[in-house]
Amino acid sequence: MAEEEGEAGGHHVLLLPGPMQGNVNSMMKLAQLLALHHFHITFLTTDFIHRRLYRFADIHSLSQTYPNLEFKTISDGLPDDHPRSGNNALADLYSSMNSFAKPLLRDIILSQTAAKSKITCLIGDGFLGGLTADVADEVGIPLIHFRAISASCFWALFCAPNLFESNELPIRVLCLLSIIMPDRMRTESKLIEGEEDMDRIISNLPGMENILRCRDLPSFYRGTETNLVDPLKSTVFDCHQTLRARGVILNTFEDLDGPLLSQMRLKFLRVFAVGPLHAHAKTTPSTSSFWEEDRSCLTWLDSQPLKSVLYVSFGSIATVTRERLMEFWYGLVNSKKRFLWVIRPDMVAGEDNDERVAAELEEGTKERGFIVGWAPQEEVLAHKAIGGFLTHSGWNSTLESLVAGVPMICWPCFADQQINSRFVSEVWKVGLDMKDLCDRDVVEKMVNDLMVHRREEFLKSAQAMATLAHKSVSPGGSSYSSLHDLVEFIKSASR
Ligand code: UDX
After folding, report:
1. What is the percent of the chain with per-residue pLDDT over 90, rounded to a whole number?
2. Number of H helices, E strands in the chain
3. How far is residue 304 from each of residues 70, 166, 266, 339, 487, measured CA to CA in Å?
4. Ligand 1 atom nearest 375 alpha carbon
5. Ligand 1 center to 23 CA (angstroms)
6. Above 60 in pLDDT, residue 226?
7. Mutate to test the pocket of ligand 1, among 146, 342, 396 (most ligand atoms within 8 A of CB)
8. What is the pLDDT of residue 6?
9. 128: three-class secondary structure by DSSP
10. Which atom, in ligand 1's list, is nearest to the CA of 150?
11. How far apart are CA 207 and CA 75, in angstroms?
């Protein structure tokens, strides 16, 4: 590609992903694409993640393929033995990094003083929106935010003030207002909840009017006083920090999220919709896994009939109770369909690192099922034997499924997953949403609907979306052009 041959000499970009698998995966792809445009790239991860990458990912060969891509580390501030998965992990990592990482990041940037290696642009994960904006201001370099969550979630959080004003939030929180609308402080400080109609339609979200029900809002808008206020306050706060950045990079494409992107362009200086990042030519799959990939599942898939297998995975953070796990297991077995299931050793709540749970289930599943601790997901989804994906609707998993043309059954857990699953079922019509319903009968019915009764309909719409995704990253496509704009912007802004 012509622009890949161009020179970006002297431009040194530091990428700081949030310390989660999905964020590292997508920012790693972006790092590769920028390295191909000859930027000098520093990929800064936490010590914990760096150890994982060295152990399980192929970052040696990455360094060889991209000699201008270097890795550096920073502490996340948590003790070594602190659990970094599970539903509370995000909150712990967020508060710890916000307390510890600011001076560390500033020192890393300032220590690169030699003209040749001076960092000229920061691409910071919007998960750490306030922290990265403060450091960029202090050291005086341009900042671009990157969002690893879906555009719809980012926008629904950014629009919290609209929802508050129109009384559409399921709760009213004074501390939220005190941060994002200090001029409109209210006297009420109580959470109003309890009688919520979760099927109430939300109308006041520009670009997605009347699409969401209350239950489809990001999970930060749900919950009880103790577990809700801080995550909601901080995620809304960080979304608003993107107003301090020179632009925002989103892992999506025009044909997927066009109406939202148009609205965002009215608020933010620049919106670079460059996704699906992993679908651009020349990025490599599976370079940043935190767990060891069990590739034996690919051999098992080779012996299965065309589009006959349901792939089941709940991403890198979500945990399930043993009871819930058993409902999925009975539902899958009763559906009589073949399945490949990822059960991470730390996935079953309260039974940390106990591989026996998966082993017990596998014993009763041999006929039609295959269980692994971690799969090469991009390759699995691209395999011809895969006919559906039961997913927690994390944004990377959703995009990977869309690109592979695989219809989904969504069982969202937290963060952007509630809104992603709504878009899958109601906007893009490439699957079914199991939100807030989960027992063995529902699982069995939805598996059969997806894989048998409505199979042709879903395969057709998923295939059509996959075609649009590939078109967007091909020469002349919207994401291809947006990546080009991003490259040019970094060069001009960091002179
Ligand atoms: C988190 C949030 O939970 C999610 O909601 C948000 O959109 C992104 O950050 P995570 O839960 O890990 O991410 O889900 P997801 O975004 O789907 O990312 C998981 C990544 O791990 C995917 O890239 C997937 O390919 C990879 N994966 C997962 C594997 O490589 N192997 C597996 O067995 C499972």
Report:
1. 68
2. 20, 13
3. 41, 52, 49, 10, 43
4. 33
5. 8
6. no
7. 396
8. 45
9. helix
10. 7
11. 39
Q: Given this model, what pLDDT does residue 195 score? A: 58
The model's pLDDT over 273-305, given as tens digits with 9 standing for 90+, comes to 999 999 998 777 656 888 899 999 999 999 999
Give CA–CA dist 204/182, Å, rounded: 21
Q: Which of 21, 289, 435 to mutate to test the pocket of ligand 1 (most atoms within 8 A of CB)?
A: 21
Element (H, E) at 371: strand 369-372
What's the pLDDT band for 197 if we cut at 50, 70, 90? confident
Identity (one letter) of the amino acid at 7? E
User: Which atom of ligand 1 is the closest one to the Cα of 291?
Assistant: 31
Residue with the nearest Cα to atom 11 of ligand 1?
315
pLDDT higher than threshold 70 for residue 356: no
Q: What is the pTM of this model?
A: 0.93
Average confidence (pLDDT) over 43-71: 88
Q: Which of 331, 362, 343, 280 is nearest to 446 (CA)?
A: 331
Ligand 1 neighbours by CB, cut-off 6 Å: 20-23, 25, 148-149, 289, 313, 315-318, 342, 374-375, 377-378, 394-397, 400, 415-417
- Ligand 1 centre to CA of 124 (Å) is 19
pLDDT tens-digit profile of 302-349?
A: 999 999 999 999 999 888 988 899 999 999 999 999 999 999 988 887
Strands (E), 235-277: 247-250, 271-273
3-state secondary structure of 360: helix
Distance CA 437, CA 435 (A): 5
CA distance 482 to 428: 22
User: 41 falls in which pLDDT band (50, 70, 90)?
Assistant: very high
pLDDT over 70 (residue 3): no
pLDDT in tens, 377-409: 999 999 999 999 999 999 999 999 999 999 999
CB-CB contact of 119 with 125 (8 Å): no
Q: How far apart are the first and last CA of the chain?
A: 24
CA distance 327 to 454: 23
In angstroms, rounded to a whole number, what is the distance separating the alpha carbons of residues 382 and 470?
13
- Using DSSP's 3-state secondary structure scheme, residue 45 falls into strand
| Rg over CA atoms, the chain | 22
* CB-based burial, 374-412: b 16+ in 10 Å, e otherwise: bbbbbbbbebebbbbbbbbbbbbbbbbbbbbbbbbbbbb
Q: Which residues contact 481 (CB under 8 A, 6 or more apart)?
A: none
DSSP state of 427: I
Q: Identity (one letter) of the amino acid at 167?
A: N
